Predict the structure.
Amino acid sequence: MKRHGIVKAAGLYFALVFGAGFVLGAIRVLWLVPAVGTRMAELFEMPVMLAVSILSARWVTQYVQVPPTAPSRIGMGGIALAMVLALDFTVILWIRGLSFRQYVEAFDPVAGTAYFVMLGLFALMPWFVAYATRSKGCPERLS
């Protein structure tokens, strides 16, 4: 697959997960935080975002026909992660009026750690879904 195909897949994957995160973030802030607090609201959101990442990675890799090779899938996830971080470190910080240091210091120790683990899972999810497909006896192989 050509590089632009991997970039296209990464952009689509990013858009789907970011879009879901945007909607879930609004629900979290408006309804969950007042009911259960910030930490619990963020932790409640994470399994849903994990499911969104899994479903999005599966659908995008099939739709764009990303080869089930480690370089292709990890490249797709890495580019999507770079898009998330670029958005977080530019637009989001600007909208919230925070410096990078303030942004990092604002993370709850528990929910913040879980968030960074989720970012890693988000980046690796396209590869994980290829591996899961292969484990089920599908003819695709990872190299």
Residues 3-134 form one domain. The chain has a mean pLDDT of 90.
